[in-house]
Amino acid sequence: MGLNVKKILISQPKPAGDKSPYYDIAEKYAVEVVFRPFIKIDPVELKDFRTQRINILDFSAVVFTAKTGVDHFFRLVGETRVYIPDTMKYFCVTEAIAVYLQKYIVYRKRKIFFAATGKMEDLATLISKHNKENYLVVVSDVHKNDLLLVMDAKKIKHKEAVMYRTVSNDFAPGESFDYDALIFFSPSGINSLMKNFPKFQQGDVAIGTFGPTTAKAAKDAGLRLDIEAPTPDAPSMTAALENYLKKALPKKKK
Prior knowledge:
The protein has 9 helices and 11 strands. It is α/β, with parallel strands linked by helices. The model has no long low-confidence stretch (mean pLDDT 90).
């Protein structure tokens, strides 16, 4: 494993503003940070959603595991011209997703629940305590998570609704790929790396992952993990990256 890091790929969209902890890291350690998603999200069109024969008002609760799911749920709610009653309950895997609901609803007037730890197994426990609800679980076309297995095992009434698609954001011919570290946030990102670069040899390239499912996908692909989050020492990806860079590089002198 080499520690000569000069250029880092963050497989997320570029932040809208000029404020980001990644920019602070770039300045602090004199490294170049490039935002370049390996995947992109395509909406499920209304006509395709209707083929799933889902009536949103048949459900008493909605489950979100990503902010993307929130956006596409309310997009389709608008396109179907459905009025969501105030009694609808919302279950989110993280507090950040729960707070994000404020973009579409009056937060304090709704019944919103989230896993305090941000872990899928704790969301499953929370849902198990509300086992009389009929859940609509918002997912992408590529979805595998333990939550659905638990809901099946406990016979909790639910249905999955595919509201968006996760597709590979392919690299263009001649597009540079000269990174010293690659940071991933989903198994789909790992899959896209292997699709775009089937002969990829990791060598000294550092691989970082966020979340256990992404870490597993990287290991299953034969990759070495150098940076992992969340951990007790690194609750965020930026904290994990900085911990790595502290070992790899001297702090930039003023």
